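Running this now, will post back.
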Amino acid sequence: MSEDTWAGVRERVLRLAGHPQADKVFGARGHGFRLGPVMDEERLRSLEADLGVGLPAQYRGFLLRVGAGGAGPHYGLMTPVPSDDGWQWRGVGLAYRGQPTTAGFAGRPFVAEALQGELDALDAQEPERDAFTDDDAFRSAHAAWDARYEELYDAQEAGAVFLAEQGCGYTSLLVMTGPHRGTVWEDLRPADRGIEPTGHDFTRWYRRWLERTERQLGITPAAPAR
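Update: finished.
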């Protein structure tokens, strides 16, 4: 991947904050067009050691050259930060802080598509009261069904990072493992649509947001310095 991918992007994003109509952009009140500091190689290697795999190259380049988190699509990007329990992605500096993701969870296999099939099958097997002779038996069966459903539901997010809060319960995820590694997916389960691919890798997803925002505000990006 060319190093030019992220050339000038940090400056372009920060420039948006000074526009008089900046707060009219969707999500701007969540991140204020602020970016966190970039990360250095030492911190990235520490994060990758905790993750158990290397970061997707495009996202790694972003962390090195643009920022660790902050301004971005929807209500802004989560930031990887170290803690006593290891690295986690958290909503540092965001008004609407999304669900944190641990590096250990993000480093697991991403099998959301396969688990959706299991969830669909389980959904059709939800216990019904009429099939039981007493309330206690029904409640016990339904509790076991519900526990298994929640287990599979939560496991769908494994292998990905909760990247951005979209609002209304929808989120953007960055896949860290497997054949879809480096691509952005959307968690649309509140609308009963599952976890679906956007069709974009991280670079395309982020740059589309930046270019769309510049067009909305009537800003012509300056050519990157060489």
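The mean pLDDT is 91. More later if anyone needs it.
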